[in-house]
Amino acid sequence: MNDELKVFCENVKILRKRYGLTQKEMAEICNVGVRSIAMLEKGILPERLSASILFRLSYYFKIDMKDLFKPISIE
Question: Which segments of 1-75 are extended strands (E)?
């Protein structure tokens, strides 16, 4: 996995925790299963992950899609 994808996976976890969301709530936002969120947070890309997750994260968290691949501060 390349560095940008690793950063994306870490950002999913950071955003979820920053906004006080459960994995289930994050899964609902992303329209994926809880298992997919858990895998992402462990740095594993689920096999059937759709690009639509980028649109959903971008819209919900008001963040540019390209910024999902750049480190987000943990604060």
Answer: none
Cβ neighbourhood burial of 53 (10 Å; 0-12, 13-18, 19+): buried
Q: Are 70 and 7 in contact (CB under 8 A)?
A: yes
Q: What is the mean pLDDT of the chain?
A: 93
The CA–CA distances, whole Å, from 34 to 11, 14, 22, 51 equal 16, 16, 9, 17
Query: What's the length of the chain?
Result: 75
pTM, entire model: 0.89
Minimal CA–CA distance to 49: which of 30, 65, 68, 67?
30
